């Protein structure tokens, strides 16, 4: 089949695919939930919003679970280092995520307004906090993380939650939150009518432009203000993980190496920025399907740009740059990568198929009358 | 408490709370599929109402199963980072496959199960329900493959260059006998949980004289399904005993308080008070021969006792010291002639050498006293295992009795004429949870001091964190989970009390698909 080097590369692509799958699917329901109290002015409107994603949020969230599982299987050192290193950030994400399934399922089970309002907050916190923290995490990956290994590859991590909340990371966090919000607004335009649809278009067309601006600003900042990493030695891409055996140099502007070597890569961030702009325009023009598609493309480009910028790094180390984790030397064994690749080839197409079918079955717009008519059966 | 104990406590708490919800999801999903099948085959709408009403309770439970499940996947990385690094190559794969093969399908279809009633034909909706149930069970398979590997790590080998366990045979990991036995035992326990849940609530309606037609039918389905499941749990539990006798001798000896090896066939201790200090069981009531039969399937094979196991562990720890020294030389490049060959001979004892690292900074030159400490710690505490195992078995046999009586009365079509039976069923409601939690306690506590059996001791598996950090998250999780469980249980009893008629399900004559929108009669 494939050799180790190809498998490693394929898995770098696949992790990206899973992250994009998460952003495009779970992104919209997290966005809608973030907007719940902003766009939805009363209980009925909020129920329209919640029920627009009710049949799908759980399946969507599995993209996140799968990305976590795939990270564990394909890049165990990355999973171990990142989850341990970002301890409190991930725990906060986890606590926020706890609230989502409960808020969805329990909110409308009782008629009490206080009960419903509390769960509305739960839904918003449960969605906005993870959306923000995922961006913060990527912002920190781009700047490097303070860790190193001992002789037995036991992790030493120096840093806490507050260190993660630096200006560049917060910018990345804001970008990821707002792109989910934009995507959620695009979804609402597809699934709702009247006021709800109008309000979400107004908000979405604004946030899409802010996303474009943040993305450009982040890129400029990265170019002139953030240390980039380069591998100065030769990594044996076919060999075992010699995670601590390479030599890495650090320099401002180092993250531009890949772009100067392959200028065509500039297309990726450019398409991303254009995607956000197009999304904003199409929302104003009422072309909702196009708005949803362009926000999906723009988000995919944000993920791809981040990956390509850092390639081959996935988790650079500030403490000892030579111990940085790359997609060549922080992977699972060849056999595990091979088996997991076969599994992905079989199941991801199936997943896409039945996910598409479920969206098809639940197609169409929702309105307040529909909620009233099906009061007990809906969220 | 130190960080190892706090990490263990956090894992135990999150796993045990998670498993309050998993077995009910496993069992109810199948029961829902059965009820809906009867609906589609007979066309009687009461069976659809049953599917919807029990489905509503299923949903309340499912939400917390999802919530607590996310924590399970995250915490290997957050709290057990060296574990994740050391064995992620093998352990991560089944978790990822679980998500791709099962959890995706389950989570996508659960949406259609609840919201697709008027969007799908009867047959398609039935297919959705069955596939959802199937996916739930597939989830359990992969999780138990992962857990089975922790108990009995096969198909893998330490790579000294990367300092990780690496996969050598996926088939061996998948077909791991411990994993297979655990899978069937665990899902059957889930079916029993679902059946007791339906049986107990139906019995409460019958006792109150409410929802008779609905409750009687639910009672019948639950009692038949429950009897089959509980028989399967018991038979397969016995099979687990055999696997323990084969590959997890320490756990078996601790469960049975077998302080020393006795002549074959070993007796089964029905009751007794394990006395750790004196290494004997006071007031023991024994049934001759039974333990030997369960654990070895023979009358002439001994069941090893704790004293003999400790002697064996001492040898392996000494070998492990040598393996550790060899590993140090091989990794540092100070390899001598023959080191590699010798390492191959003793590598299977390396894990025992690592046990010493809890007591000594210099494993290769540990003192005799330190070795003694490691030997003593190589056997888990006996009394918690002894008692939780017996709690599980007692709960299991009570439920066997319950289902046998319930089915007998159902077949004679008069369960509501026997209030004592209905009360027995109602008060049995906690039994499956007691059995499940006790069973998992035996499985996991009985694996101590190992994170990965005979490979990686628990004290090395932890993350690079401080005890305060772990304590902080433990307290936060404790508060959150307690709140969630209280809310969940309140909602459960609220909707169970309302019953199908109180929830508007019995007015569902229009057959329009969506649940009716008449306001509830109570509330």
From TrEMBL, chain A:
Q: Which family does it belong to?
A: Belongs to the cytochrome ubiquinol oxidase subunit 2 family.
Q: What is the lineage of its organism?
A: Bacteria, Pseudomonadati, Pseudomonadota, Gammaproteobacteria, Oceanospirillales
Record's Pfam families? Cyt_bd_oxida_II
Membrane topology qualifier: Multi-pass membrane protein
* Keywords of the record: Cell membrane, Electron transport, Heme, Iron, Membrane, Metal-binding, Transmembrane, Transmembrane helix, Transport
The residues that cross the membrane are 12-36, 81-100, 121-142, 162-188, 200-224, 264-283, 290-315, 335-362
What would be one Gene Ontology cellular-component term for the protein? cytochrome complex
Specify the superkingdom.
Answer: Bacteria
- One record GO biological process: aerobic electron transport chain
Q: What is this protein called?
A: Cytochrome d ubiquinol oxidase subunit II
Coarse class of the protein's main subcellular location: membrane
Q: Where in the cell is it found?
A: Cell membrane
Which one of the record's GO molecular function terms can you name?
A: oxidoreductase activity, acting on diphenols and related substances as donors, oxygen as acceptor
Species this chain originates from: Vreelandella glaciei
- Coiled-coil boundaries: none
From TrEMBL, chain B:
Per the record, the major location class is membrane
Q: Which organism is it from?
A: Vreelandella sp. SM1641
The molecular function terms of the Gene Ontology recorded here are: electron transfer activity; heme binding; metal ion binding; oxidoreductase activity, acting on diphenols and related substances as donors, oxygen as acceptor
From its record, what is one biological process in GO terms?
aerobic electron transport chain
What EC number(s) is this enzyme filed under?
A: 1.10.3.-
Record's keyword annotation contains Transferase: no
Q: Which family does it belong to?
A: Belongs to the cytochrome ubiquinol oxidase subunit 1 family.
Q: Does the keyword Heme apply?
A: yes
Entry keyword set: Cell inner membrane, Cell membrane, Electron transport, Heme, Iron, Membrane, Metal-binding, Oxidoreductase, Transmembrane, Transmembrane helix, Transport
Q: Where are the transmembrane segments?
A: 20-41, 53-71, 91-115, 127-150, 183-207, 219-237, 387-408, 420-443, 470-491
Q: What class of enzyme is it?
A: oxidoreductase
Membrane topology, as annotated, equals: Multi-pass membrane protein
InterPro entries, A to Z: Cyt-d_ubiquinol_oxidase_su_1
Q: This chain belongs to which protein, by name?
A: Cytochrome ubiquinol oxidase subunit I
Q: Where in the cell is it found?
A: Cell inner membrane
């Amino acid at each position: 089949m494939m050799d180790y080097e190809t498998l490693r590369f394929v898995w770098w692509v696949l992790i990206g695919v899973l992250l994009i799958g998460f952003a495009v699917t779970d992104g919209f329901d997290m966005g809608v939930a973030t907007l719940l109290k902003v766009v939805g002015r009363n209980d009925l409107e909020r129920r329209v919003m919640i029920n627009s994603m009710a049949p799908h949020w759980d399946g969507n969230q599995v993209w996140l679970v799968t990305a976590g599982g795939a990270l564990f299987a394909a890049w165990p050192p990355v999973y171990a280092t990142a989850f341990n290193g970002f301890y409190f950030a991930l725990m906060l994400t986890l606590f926020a995520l706890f609230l989502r399934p409960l808020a969805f399922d329990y909110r409308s089970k009782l008629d009490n307004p206080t009960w419903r309002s509390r769960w509305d907050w739960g839904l918003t916190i449960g969605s906005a906090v993870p959306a923000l923290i995922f961006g913060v995490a990527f912002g920190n990956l781009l700047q490097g993380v303070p860790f190193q290994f001992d002789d037995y590859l036991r992790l030493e991590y120096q840093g806490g939650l507050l260190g993660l909340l630096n200006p560049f990371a917060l910018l990345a966090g804001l970008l990821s939150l707002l792109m989910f919000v934009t995507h959620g607004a695009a979804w609402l335009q597809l699934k709702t009518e009247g006021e709800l649809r109008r309000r979400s278009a107004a908000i979405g067309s604004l946030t899409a432009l802010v996303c474009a601006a943040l993305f450009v600003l982040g890129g400029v900042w990265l170019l002139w203000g953030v240390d980039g990493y380069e591998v100065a030695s030769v990594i044996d891409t076919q060999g075992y993980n010699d995670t601590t055996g390479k030599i890495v140099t650090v320099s401002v502007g180092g993250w531009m190496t890949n772009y100067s070597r392959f200028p065509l890569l500039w297309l990726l961030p450019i398409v991303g920025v254009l995607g956000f702009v197009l999304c904003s325009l199409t929302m104003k023009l009422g072309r909702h399907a196009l708005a949803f598609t362009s926000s999906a493309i723009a988000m995919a480009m944000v993920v791809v740009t981040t990956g390509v910028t850092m390639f081959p790094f996935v988790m650079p180390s500030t403490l000892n740059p030579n111990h940085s984790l790359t997609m060549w030397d922080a992977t699972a064994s060849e056999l595990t990568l091979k088996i997991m690749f076969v599994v992905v080839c079989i199941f991801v197409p199936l997943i896409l198929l039945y996910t598409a079918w479920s969206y098809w079955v639940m197609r169409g717009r929702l309105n307040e009358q529909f909620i009233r008519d099906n009061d007990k059966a809906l969220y | 408490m130190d960080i190892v104990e706090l990490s263990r406590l956090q894992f135990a708490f999150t796993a045990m709370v998670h498993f309050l919800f998993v077995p009910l999801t496993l069992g109810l999903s199948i029961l829902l599929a059965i009820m809906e099948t009867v609906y589609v085959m007979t066309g009687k709408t009461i069976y659809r109402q049953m599917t919807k009403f029990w489905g509503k309770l299923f949903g309340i439970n499912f939400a917390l199963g999802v919530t607590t499940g996310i924590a399970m996947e995250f915490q290997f990385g957050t709290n057990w980072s060296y574990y994740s690094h050391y064995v992620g190559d093998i352990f991560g794969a089944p978790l990822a496959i679980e998500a791709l093969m099962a959890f995706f399908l389950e989570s996508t279809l659960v949406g259609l199960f609840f919201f697709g009633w008027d969007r799908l034909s009867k047959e398609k909706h039935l297919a959705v329900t069955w596939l959802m149930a199937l996916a739930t069970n597939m989830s359990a398979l992969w999780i138990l493959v992962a857990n089975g590997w922790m108990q009995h790590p096969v198909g893998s080998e330490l790579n000294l260059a990367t300092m990780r366990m690496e996969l050598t045979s996926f088939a061996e990991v998948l077909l791991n006998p411990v994993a297979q036995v655990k899978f069937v035992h665990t899902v059957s326990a889930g079916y029993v949980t679902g059946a007791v849940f339906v049986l107990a609530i139906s019995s409460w309606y019958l006792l109150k004289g409410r929802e008779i037609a609905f409750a009687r039918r639910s009672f019948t389905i639950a009692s038949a399904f429950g009897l089959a499941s509980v028989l399967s749990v018991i038979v397969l539990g016995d099979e687990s005993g055999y696997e323990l006798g084969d590959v997890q001798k320490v756990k078996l000896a601790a469960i049975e308080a077998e302080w020393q090896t006795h002549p074959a066939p070993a007796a089964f201790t029905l009751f007794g008070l394990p006395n750790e200090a004196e290494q004997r069981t006071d007031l023991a009531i024994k049934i001759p021969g039974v333990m030997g039969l369960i654990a070895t399937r023979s009358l002439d094979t001994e069941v090893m006792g704790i004293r003999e196991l400790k002697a064996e562990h001492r040898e392996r720890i000494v070998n492990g010291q040598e393996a550790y020294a060899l590993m140090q030389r091989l990794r540092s490049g100070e390899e001598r002639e023959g080191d590699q060959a010798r390492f191959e001979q003793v590598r299977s004892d390396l894990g025992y050498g690592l046990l010493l690292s809890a007591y000594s900074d210099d494993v290769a030159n540990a003192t005799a006293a330190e070795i003694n400490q490691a030997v003593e710690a190589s056997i888990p505490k006996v009394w918690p295992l002894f008692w939780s195992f017996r709690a599980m078995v007692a709960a299991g046999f009570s439920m066997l009795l319950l289902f046998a009586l319930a089915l007998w009365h159902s077949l004679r079509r008069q369960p509501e004429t026997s209030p004592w039976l209905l009360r027995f069923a109602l008060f049995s409601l906690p039994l499956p949870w007691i059995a499940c939690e006790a069973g998992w306690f035996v499985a996991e506590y009985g694996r101590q001091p190992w994170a990965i059996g005979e490979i990686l001791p628990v004290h090395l598996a932890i993350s690079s964190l401080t005890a305060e950090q772990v304590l902080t998250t433990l307290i936060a999780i404790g508060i959150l989970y307690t709140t969630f469980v209280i809310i969940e249980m309140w909602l459960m009893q609220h909707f169970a009390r309302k019953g199908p008629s109180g929830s508007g399900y019995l007015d569902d004559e229009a057959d329009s698909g969506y649940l009716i929108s008449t306001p509830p009669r109570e509330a």
